[in-house]
Specification:
It is a single chain. This protein is α/β, with parallel strands linked by helices and 555 residues long. Helix content is 29%, strand content 22%. The chain is built from 17 helices and 27 strands. The strands form six sheets. It has a seven-stranded mixed beta sheet with strand order 2-1-10-9-11-12-13, sandwiched between helices. A six-stranded mixed beta sheet has the order 6-5-3-4-7-8. Helix 7 links the parallel strand 9 and strand 10. 49% of the residues are buried.
């Protein structure tokens, strides 16, 4: 970092900057105007501040007001709580109340969504941006602001359980702005297309903060649209964007046109895009996708290695990044890979990713000491993610602890099976997880999202799986759920925990088969009941547990 030790410093450094700072399809603002809009809202926030943690809940889509309130919080020493607009009812109420906001910033649509909920905030402290009038204010930062001043409470994506609110200070976000601007090659000449939600770390840490550091223009769209992606890129002049893997698969599923490469896009950063999708995206749109590893809680553990294996994350960023046995804390030996890249010695080589130097940098969760203790143990930062290193020092993601499925005494990687299934051009998204076997152990189940009009028979799945030479004999899914809209988090990631809890008891069609070479048959109501009775007769009915009803969303 240079002299800009806080986001407030970085923002004030843009005062007077006449270059484009924010753009929508309707209008453009210079960086100087962005700073002044932020300062006007900061002045109002100061007047409304009360004793206690100054948390401001923001329930908005990707509109300019969200960007201005990020800046306002930075200048006023407040903390933005980005509210997930896909949440509903009691879940939304519980999530927001937990953060104890003093103000709620939203619009008429958000207000309707909050109707009947008790967020612990009086109605007169709901600020509707549709109606608000902000007086001009000369930009300045509150003098007590320092790098440790909290700026964000970022809800974790909740793919595997209840969301937690991760803290992020001004100093940490400023540091990430510098790191990511360099890592993802963001310069002042870039137009950074923000199609991922601003309430999530992907957009704030991977796009807004680097753009602020570099003086690049931020281009907004209210929400991601696969059909609108390329038109937006062209209309906004976008050169850089952030993504999640499912969004990339949706874009690739749109009809191809001969002029797809005629666009200004050069590169993007994100997670969970398969190597095949990254290659297809580059060939079709002429833009490189930089796949990386990180989280709202911690980042900077991996250095990109573009020349390395396509499934590798990169290399450890420093000696403190290790893969260890969580029981003994001993460093795991290198993975022995077969000709298909599968790990031969998974039991020994796969462990949890830790940062032995990162405990002091972890800023914790809001009012959740149990979750804090899970992340920091023995003076180390524990990611909760599994990984392995090969003999050349490349680091690979191996999922979370539940992503290894024990089938007939053999470990099978859910992450690897997902990658295999995503090669099918009619599969937009895939989640793989273990479900109980009626007799013992687990079986592999896959939930597949396919385009409207595509049926399970159209997939010809048995033939496709048989042609995948790197799919182990235990990896072919026993159960396959077929959907046109699998449930996702607000940041676009699949809700794997909810899918796993429902298993084959979901409301959508599920197909099953016995062996690798057998065809699939539909689990009709009679077959589902027979399977349930098999669990009951084996005394394993308790392993099913109550299903969690997932809500299917269409894209």
């Amino acid at each position: 970092m240079t002299s800009g030790q806080t986001i407030a410093d970085l923002l004030l450094a843009r005062a007077g900057d006449p270059r484009p700072g924010l753009r929508t399809r309707d209008r453009e603002w210079t960086w100087d105007e962005v700073v002044r809009e932020s300062a006007a809202r900061a002045a109002l926030a100061r007047r409304l501040r009360r004793d206690g943690p100054f948390h401001i809940a923001v329930l908005l889509e990707n509109v300019p007001e969200f960007v201005w309130w990020l800046g306002a919080a930075a200048l006023a020493g407040a903390t933005v709580v980005g509210v997930n607009p896909t949440r509903r009812g009691a879940y939304l109420e519980q999530e927001v109340r937990h953060t104890e906001p003093q103000l709620v910033v939203t619009d008429q649509a958000g207000l309707a969504q909050l109707e009947g909920l008790d967020l612990g905030v009086p109605q007169d402290r709901y600020l509707l941006v549709d109606d608000a009038d902000f007086a001009d204010q000369e930009p300045f930062r509150d003098p007590e602001i320092d790098p440790g001043t909290p700026l964000l409470l970022l809800f974790t994506s909740g793919t595997t359980g209840i969301s937690k609110a991760a803290r992020c200070s001004q100093g940490r976000l400023a540091g990430l702005g510098y790191q990511n601007a360099a890592k993802y090659r963001v310069t002042q000449d870039d137009v950074c297309y923000c199609c991922m939600p601003l309430f999530h770390g992907n957009a704030v840490m991977g796009l807004w903060a680097p753009a602020l550091v570099a003086g690049a223009c931020v281009a907004l769209t209210p929400k991601f649209s696969a059909s609108g992606f390329l038109p937006d890129v062209r209309a906004l002049g976008a050169t850089y964007f952030t993504y999640v893997g499912k969004a990339v698969s949706y874009v690739l599923a749109t009809p191809e046109h001969p002029d797809d490469r005629e666009n200004p896009l050069t590169h993007g950063f994100g997670t969970e895009a398969s190597p095949e999708d990254r290659e297809l995206f580059a060939a079709r749109f002429g833009a490189e996708l930089l796949e990386a590893y990180g989280s709202s809680e911690g980042a900077g553990m991996v250095t990109l290695a573009p020349s390395g294996p396509p499934t590798a994350l990169g290399r450890p960023a420093h000696d403190g990044v290790r893969v260890v046995d969580p029981e003994t804390r001993k460093t795991c030996p290198p993975a022995e890979l077969d000709e298909h890249g599968r790990v031969r010695n998974a039991e020994e080589a796969i462990g949890e990713l830790v940062n032995t130097l990162g405990a002091a940098k972890f800023e914790g969760y809001w009012n959740n000491p149990a979750a804090d203790a899970e992340r920091v143990r023995h003076g180390w930062y524990w990611t909760g993610d599994l990984g392995y290193l090969d003999r050349e020092g490349y680091l690979y993601f191996a999922g979370r602890s539940g992503d290894w499925i024990r089938v007939d005494g053999e470990n099978t990687s859910a992450v690897h099976v997902e990658r295999v299934l995503r090669r099918h051009r009619s599969v937009l998204a895939a989640a793989v997880f273990g479900v109980p076997d009626p007799r013992s152990g687990d079986q592999v189940m896959a939930a597949l999202e396919v385009p409207e009009g595509v049926t399970f028979d159209d997939l010809e799945l048995p033939a496709f799986l048989a042609a995948q030479t790197d799919l182990g004999t235990k990896g072919a899914p026993r159960f396959v759920r077929v959907s046109h809209g699998l449930p996702t988090t607000g940041s676009g990631k699949l809700q794997r925990k909810a899918l796993q809890l429902e298993g084959w008891r979901c409301p959508e069609p599920v197909y099953s088969r016995i062996g690798r070479d057998d065809g699939y048959t539909l689990l009709d109501p009679a077959a589902r009941e027979a399977l349930r009775r098999e669990f009951e007769s084996a005394g394993r009915l308790r392993f099913l547990g109550p299903p969690e009803r997932t809500h299917v969303r269409s894209r």
